[in-house]
Specification:
The structure is a single chain. The strands form 3 sheets. A two-stranded antiparallel sheet has the order 1-2. A two-stranded antiparallel sheet has the order 3-4. The chain is mainly alpha-helical. Helix 14 crosses helix 15 (about 280-295) and helix 18 (about 330-345) packs antiparallel against helix 19 (about 350-360). Helix content is about 70%, strand content about 5%. The longest helix has 23 residues, at about 35-60. The chain is globular. The two termini are about 20 Å apart.
């Protein structure tokens, strides 16, 4: 999804970093103001990760006593020199550009899910210091990144950077940080959380109507946040009315409509008759709200058929063959199974989980 937009950004970034030399220094990339700050930060973090790997190799070498005080005193200076001397050959440059663009868009549209797979990369646990290193690749959604770093700083004194964190615990931390941040946001402040998405697509897709983004991007964003009623309302507009581009003004209207429907439905549904016992407020309110929302979900077969038909029209035979060859290792049956599993999903978050599990199994 969004391959056209990703390709445009990749090409632009390659032009900005074009060099006839065998490699391009990290310092030249960081000094290039034409390159978006998000991508400069990504390259810097990639070099820092190389250094992290180099330190691990250095400290595990049995031939040298790396605990020697004189050596340890020199390591900070050596590490600084490594960063200053870091460079990307053409192969590394192309691979890093591709990863940077994909990761940034993913983090913009589904930050919670992206944090999980980008930080842990299919592994069940990670040391805390590696988690913090991985966060340095990202610059958008600063409230999330700052919240996680603040949590790390608040760890008890006896905890160390070598503390091991499970992916399940990390997901819980991310969800809490995100929920705490957006809990008291006004409607206008919540919509402003999408500013990065609007800015990305303004540069990546000049064919879009002014001040708009693909509706699918906002649906993915809302599913990632757990804002299911609003994402379902947008899905109905997408599949029934073919609302493929969404402006901020239209998004405000959708939110207002969803809130109004909930406010109108819930009081009416929980009003008891004189002969009825007065229900406990919390269980009835929750049950009624869920029932009201489910009643508005479009028929699943219709949605699945629309998704399947749209998927077939978007992927030509040549592209399909490339996907099967490069992503599924020439296994057409596996390709069909994964696509079928994705198209059967009711929500975007569920579909993202299918894809994440596939890539985790592939390593």
């Amino acid at each position: 999804m969004f391959e056209k937009e990703l390709d445009r950004v990749r090409k632009q970034l390659k032009q900005q970093l074009d060099t006839r030399q065998p490699s391009i220094p990290l310092s030249a990339i960081l000094a290039n103001e034409n390159v978006h700050p998000a991508y400069r930060a990504y390259f810097r973090a990639e070099a820092e990760w190389w250094l992290h790997e180099e330190r691990a190799i250095r400290s595990s070498n049995p031939r040298f006593d790396t605990g020697n005080e004189a050596l340890r005193a020199m390591f900070p200076t050596l590490d600084d020199l490594y960063i200053k001397a870091a460079r990307f050959d053409h192969e590394e440059l192309t691979a890093t550009i591709d990863a940077a663009v994909k990761t940034r868009l993913n983090f913009l549209v589904r930050p919670r899910t992206t944090l999980k797979w980008f930080v842990f990369r299919g592994e069940p646990t990670k040391p805390l210091y590696e988690i913090l290193l991985r966060l340095n690749y990202l610059t958008d959604n600063t409230y999330l990144l700052d919240g996680i770093r603040q949590w790390a700083k608040s760890r008890p004194a006896e905890s160390s950077a070598n503390e091991i964190l499970s992916v399940v615990e990390f997901e819980r931390i991310v969800e809490k940080v995100d929920n705490d941040a957006i809990l008291d946001l006004s409607q206008d402040e919540f919509v402003r959380l999408l500013d990065g998405i609007y800015a990305f697509f303004a540069e990546a897709d000049p064919d879009l109507p002014p001040e708009s983004v693909p509706t699918e991007a906002v649906i993915i964003f809302l599913d990632d946040k757990g804002a299911v009623p609003i994402s379902q309302a947008l899905e109905r507009l997408l599949y029934r009315e073919e609302l493929r581009a969404l402006t901020r003004l239209k998004f405000f209207d959708v939110i207002d409509t969803v809130i109004a429907n909930i406010e109108e439905t819930v009081p009416e549904a929980i009003t008891p008759t004189p002969s009825d016992p007065v229900p406990a407020p919390v269980p009835e309110l929750v049950e009624t709200e869920i029932t009201a929302e489910i009643s508005e979900v479009p028929d699943v077969p219709d949605v699945h058929a629309a998704r399947a038909e749209r998927f077939r029209t978007m992927l030509d035979v040549s592209s399909k063959e490339r996907v099967i060859k490069k992503v599924f290792n020439k296994d057409a049956e596996l390709y069909s199974q994964v696509v079928s599993d994705v198209l059967r999903c009711v929500e975007w978050k569920e579909a993202a989980g299918v894809v994440d599990r596939f890539f985790a199994r592939q390593g």
